[in-house]
Amino acid sequence: MKKTVAFLGLGTMGGAMTNNLLKAGFAVRGYDPAAEACARAARNGVQILPSAAEAVTGVEVACSVVPGPDDVRALYLGERGVLAAAAGGTVCFDFSTITPEASCEVAEAARKIGVSFLDTPVSGTAPRAVSAELTVMAGGDKAALEKHKDVLAAMTQSVTHFGPNGMGLRMKLVGNHLVSAQVCVLAEALTLARKAGLDLDLAVAYLLQSPVMDTIRSKIRDVAKRNYPPAFKLDLMAKDLRQIAAMAEAAHAPIPFSALAKQIFTAGQAIGRGGEDQTAVHEVYRRLAGD
Fold first, then answer.
1. CB-CB contact of 268 with 175 (8 Å)
2. Which residues are annotated as catalytic?
């Protein structure tokens, strides 16, 4: 008989991930403060509970994906949060991208009551969540990870354990540092091509077949057409860039381009593009170019 899994956070990513758990035969108990997300999940077969505490009661494994550090703290440490009801031996996988410090704070509180909390951020946007092609970067108790790897396997393509609590998130922030820089360079390059008088369609066609484009091949057509469907929202990358900056400062690591990228993403939010895909930073460059 398959396990029962509690899933906390039933939005775009959480909804897709719970669907894959259901397809794999797991029973899913869910919680989300948004009524619309709960209604959608219920239609798909999730048993909705009125609080995180009630959702995790009696389960061996809980999963969560929420926007930021304060959301994770409230979800786990709040009066009706996970740790108010989770039994000793419960394993929690948190897929949220938050600061390693906040995650370790929750992990320590969990450890004191015999609960294993792992940071398990994912790489991959909403379409990959739907197709169960996310990759997981894990930090925390490896034995707990191995015990419930079947749960992760239903939602993801691969799982890599990077060490103790916080290490999965550190790896996620390193990866997003690379992505954010590439997105900004893409916007710069297309702006430069256009301002230099190049035919943009011809330039895009050339770049797509050139070896320099392998890392950003999937985004260039949409950016050139000023089409930014939100696979990974600009607001979320702006938040991750703030966390990258904090981690780099603590590590005394110089990241000048990331600092510039953070300002560009902040400008993207200021012009109202935060809800669009991160590639909408192209609009910041267009404004800077006087378009």
1. no
2. 172
